[in-house]
Protein backbone atom coordinates (compact mmCIF):
# COMPACT_ATOMS: atom_id res chain seq x y z
CA UNK A 1 0.00 0.00 0.00
CA UNK A 2 1.23 3.48 -0.85
CA UNK A 3 1.83 5.97 1.95
CA UNK A 4 0.29 9.30 0.97
CA UNK A 5 1.85 11.19 3.84
CA UNK A 6 5.37 10.84 2.54
CA UNK A 7 4.23 11.41 -1.06
CA UNK A 8 2.45 14.61 -0.11
CA UNK A 9 5.40 16.02 1.77
CA UNK A 10 7.82 15.33 -1.06
CA UNK A 11 5.55 16.96 -3.65
CA UNK A 12 4.32 19.82 -1.44
CA UNK A 13 0.65 18.74 -1.52
CA UNK A 14 -1.89 20.11 0.93
CA UNK A 15 -4.29 17.85 2.86
CA UNK A 16 -6.98 18.46 0.23
CA UNK A 17 -4.54 17.66 -2.53
CA UNK A 18 -3.59 14.39 -0.82
CA UNK A 19 -7.29 13.42 -0.54
CA UNK A 20 -7.79 14.07 -4.24
CA UNK A 21 -4.72 12.01 -5.06
CA UNK A 22 -5.97 9.15 -2.86
CA UNK A 23 -9.42 9.26 -4.48
CA UNK A 24 -7.85 9.21 -7.95
CA UNK A 25 -5.76 6.15 -7.11
CA UNK A 26 -8.77 4.36 -5.60
CA UNK A 27 -10.92 5.08 -8.64
CA UNK A 28 -8.20 3.97 -11.03
CA UNK A 29 -8.73 0.40 -9.81
CA UNK A 30 -12.51 0.51 -10.36
CA UNK A 31 -13.98 -0.65 -13.65
CA UNK A 32 -17.59 0.08 -14.57
CA UNK A 33 -19.48 -0.11 -17.80
CA UNK A 34 -21.76 2.63 -19.03
CA UNK A 35 -24.76 0.38 -18.38
CA UNK A 36 -23.91 -0.03 -14.68
CA UNK A 37 -23.51 3.72 -14.28
CA UNK A 38 -26.85 4.45 -15.94
CA UNK A 39 -28.65 2.04 -13.58
CA UNK A 40 -26.93 3.59 -10.60
CA UNK A 41 -27.73 7.15 -11.66
CA UNK A 42 -31.40 6.33 -12.16
CA UNK A 43 -31.79 5.75 -8.41
CA UNK A 44 -30.38 9.14 -7.44
CA UNK A 45 -32.75 11.83 -6.20
CA UNK A 46 -32.61 15.01 -8.19
CA UNK A 47 -33.21 17.96 -5.83
CA UNK A 48 -34.05 20.16 -8.83
CA UNK A 49 -36.67 17.84 -10.31
CA UNK A 50 -40.22 19.21 -10.25
CA UNK A 51 -42.17 18.02 -7.24
CA UNK A 52 -45.78 17.07 -7.57
CA UNK A 53 -48.16 18.57 -5.03
CA UNK A 54 -50.98 16.42 -3.74
CA UNK A 55 -53.58 18.57 -2.08
CA UNK A 56 -55.61 17.16 0.81
CA UNK A 57 -59.36 17.65 0.82
CA UNK A 58 -60.24 20.94 2.53
CA UNK A 59 -62.83 20.60 5.27
CA UNK A 60 -64.98 23.71 5.65
CA UNK A 61 -64.85 25.19 9.17
CA UNK A 62 -67.79 26.52 11.15
CA UNK A 63 -68.83 30.05 10.16
CA UNK A 64 -66.75 32.61 12.08
CA UNK A 65 -67.94 34.11 15.36
CA UNK A 66 -67.02 37.74 16.10
CA UNK A 67 -65.48 36.69 19.45
CA UNK A 68 -62.90 34.55 17.60
CA UNK A 69 -61.81 37.20 15.07
CA UNK A 70 -58.21 38.38 15.38
CA UNK A 71 -57.47 41.64 13.54
CA UNK A 72 -54.20 42.07 11.63
CA UNK A 73 -52.65 45.00 9.78
CA UNK A 74 -52.15 45.07 6.03
CA UNK A 75 -50.11 47.82 4.36
CA UNK A 76 -51.94 49.85 1.73
CA UNK A 77 -55.45 48.82 2.77
CA UNK A 78 -57.17 52.18 2.62
CA UNK A 79 -60.46 51.86 4.45
CA UNK A 80 -60.60 48.06 4.79
CA UNK A 81 -59.87 46.08 7.94
CA UNK A 82 -58.93 42.41 8.11
CA UNK A 83 -59.31 39.65 10.70
CA UNK A 84 -58.67 35.91 10.87
CA UNK A 85 -61.00 33.52 12.64
CA UNK A 86 -58.61 31.95 15.14
CA UNK A 87 -60.74 28.78 15.35
CA UNK A 88 -60.41 28.17 11.61
CA UNK A 89 -56.60 28.16 11.31
CA UNK A 90 -55.25 24.70 10.46
CA UNK A 91 -52.20 23.09 8.88
CA UNK A 92 -52.97 20.09 6.68
CA UNK A 93 -50.86 17.02 6.02
CA UNK A 94 -50.19 18.66 2.65
CA UNK A 95 -48.62 21.66 4.48
CA UNK A 96 -51.39 23.98 3.35
CA UNK A 97 -52.36 26.58 5.94
CA UNK A 98 -56.13 27.01 5.82
CA UNK A 99 -58.01 29.87 7.47
CA UNK A 100 -61.10 32.08 7.37
CA UNK A 101 -60.52 35.78 6.73
CA UNK A 102 -63.09 38.53 7.27
CA UNK A 103 -62.64 41.76 5.31
CA UNK A 104 -64.72 44.71 6.54
CA UNK A 105 -65.23 48.11 4.91
CA UNK A 106 -65.75 51.37 6.83
CA UNK A 107 -69.47 51.16 6.04
CA UNK A 108 -69.64 47.71 7.71
CA UNK A 109 -69.90 45.57 4.58
CA UNK A 110 -68.20 42.20 5.14
CA UNK A 111 -66.58 39.68 2.85
CA UNK A 112 -65.95 36.29 4.48
CA UNK A 113 -63.77 33.72 2.70
CA UNK A 114 -62.20 30.38 3.52
CA UNK A 115 -58.77 30.12 1.91
CA UNK A 116 -55.56 28.17 1.84
CA UNK A 117 -51.97 29.16 1.25
CA UNK A 118 -48.85 27.25 0.35
CA UNK A 119 -45.60 28.52 1.82
CA UNK A 120 -43.44 26.38 -0.51
CA UNK A 121 -44.88 27.97 -3.65
CA UNK A 122 -46.14 31.30 -2.20
CA UNK A 123 -49.59 30.59 -3.63
CA UNK A 124 -53.16 30.88 -2.37
CA UNK A 125 -56.51 29.34 -3.15
CA UNK A 126 -60.08 30.41 -2.40
CA UNK A 127 -62.18 27.45 -1.24
CA UNK A 128 -65.47 29.05 -0.24
CA UNK A 129 -67.32 32.25 0.62
CA UNK A 130 -69.98 33.05 3.20
CA UNK A 131 -72.50 35.46 1.68
CA UNK A 132 -74.18 38.07 3.89
CA UNK A 133 -76.84 36.46 6.08
CA UNK A 134 -75.86 32.91 5.09
CA UNK A 135 -75.23 30.20 7.68
CA UNK A 136 -73.45 27.80 5.32
CA UNK A 137 -70.42 28.15 3.09
CA UNK A 138 -70.78 28.39 -0.68
CA UNK A 139 -68.00 26.41 -2.35
CA UNK A 140 -66.00 28.27 -4.97
CA UNK A 141 -66.83 26.39 -8.15
CA UNK A 142 -65.29 28.85 -10.60
CA UNK A 143 -62.24 27.98 -12.68
CA UNK A 144 -60.34 30.51 -10.58
CA UNK A 145 -61.15 28.57 -7.42
CA UNK A 146 -59.87 25.28 -8.78
CA UNK A 147 -56.27 26.45 -9.16
CA UNK A 148 -53.57 27.92 -6.99
CA UNK A 149 -52.51 31.52 -7.68
CA UNK A 150 -49.28 33.31 -6.89
CA UNK A 151 -49.66 35.85 -4.09
CA UNK A 152 -48.72 39.43 -4.85
CA UNK A 153 -46.79 41.66 -2.50
CA UNK A 154 -46.76 45.43 -2.67
CA UNK A 155 -50.27 45.63 -4.10
CA UNK A 156 -53.26 47.16 -2.38
CA UNK A 157 -55.06 44.88 0.12
CA UNK A 158 -52.54 42.03 -0.18
CA UNK A 159 -53.83 40.37 2.98
CA UNK A 160 -52.95 36.80 1.95
CA UNK A 161 -49.32 37.75 1.30
CA UNK A 162 -49.26 39.60 4.64
CA UNK A 163 -50.53 36.49 6.44
CA UNK A 164 -47.94 34.33 4.68
CA UNK A 165 -44.97 36.62 5.31
CA UNK A 166 -45.82 37.86 8.81
CA UNK A 167 -47.59 34.91 10.43
CA UNK A 168 -47.98 31.61 8.58
CA UNK A 169 -44.67 30.98 6.79
CA UNK A 170 -40.98 31.05 7.62
CA UNK A 171 -39.44 31.37 4.20
CA UNK A 172 -40.76 28.44 2.16
CA UNK A 173 -41.90 26.38 5.16
CA UNK A 174 -44.91 26.49 7.46
CA UNK A 175 -44.22 28.60 10.57
CA UNK A 176 -45.22 25.92 13.06
CA UNK A 177 -48.48 24.62 14.46
CA UNK A 178 -51.85 26.28 13.98
CA UNK A 179 -51.95 27.08 17.72
CA UNK A 180 -48.58 28.85 17.52
CA UNK A 181 -49.76 30.88 14.51
CA UNK A 182 -52.93 31.94 16.34
CA UNK A 183 -50.90 32.99 19.40
CA UNK A 184 -48.62 35.04 17.14
CA UNK A 185 -51.63 36.72 15.50
CA UNK A 186 -53.11 37.49 18.93
CA UNK A 187 -49.87 38.90 20.32
CA UNK A 188 -49.42 41.24 17.34
CA UNK A 189 -53.05 42.24 16.84
CA UNK A 190 -53.51 46.02 16.48
CA UNK A 191 -55.28 47.68 19.40
CA UNK A 192 -58.74 49.07 18.74
CA UNK A 193 -59.09 52.79 19.36
What topology does this entry show?
Elements: H1 4-11, H2 15-28, H3 34-42, E1 69-72, E2 81-85, E3 90-91, E4 96-104, E5 110-118, E6 123-129, E7 138-139, E8 149-150, H4 159-168, E9 169-170, E10 173-174, H5 178-187
Antiparallel strand pairs: 1-2, 2-4, 3-4, 4-5, 5-6, 6-7, 6-8, 9-10
Helix pairs in contact: 1-2
The tally of helices reads 5
> Would you tell me the overall average pLDDT?
81
| Beta-strand residue fraction | 15-25%
Distance between the termini: 82 Å
Subunit organisation of the chains = single chain
Structural class: alpha+beta
Helix percentage:
25-40%
What is the strand tally? 10
Shape: globular
Largest sheet: 8 strands, antiparallel
| Uncertain runs | 1-11, 34-42
Radius of gyration: 27 Å
The sequence of SSEs as H and E is HHHEEEEEEEEHEEH
How many domains? The number is 2
Structure description:
The strands form 2 sheets. Strands 1, 2, 3, 4, 5, 6, 7 and 8 form an 8-stranded antiparallel sheet that branches. A two-stranded antiparallel ribbon has the order 9-10. The radius of gyration is 27 Å and the shape is globular. The protein is built from 5 helices and 10 strands. It is α+β, with helices and mostly antiparallel strands. A hairpin with a 4-residue loop joins strand 3 and strand 4. It has 2 domains: 38 residues, no CATH class; 122 residues, no CATH class.
Amino acid sequence: MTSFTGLGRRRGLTAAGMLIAAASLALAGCKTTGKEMAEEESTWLNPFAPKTFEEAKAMLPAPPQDANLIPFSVAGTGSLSFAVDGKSVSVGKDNVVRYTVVTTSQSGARNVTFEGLRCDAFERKLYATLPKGATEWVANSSDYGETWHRMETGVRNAYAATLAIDFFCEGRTVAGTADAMVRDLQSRAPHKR
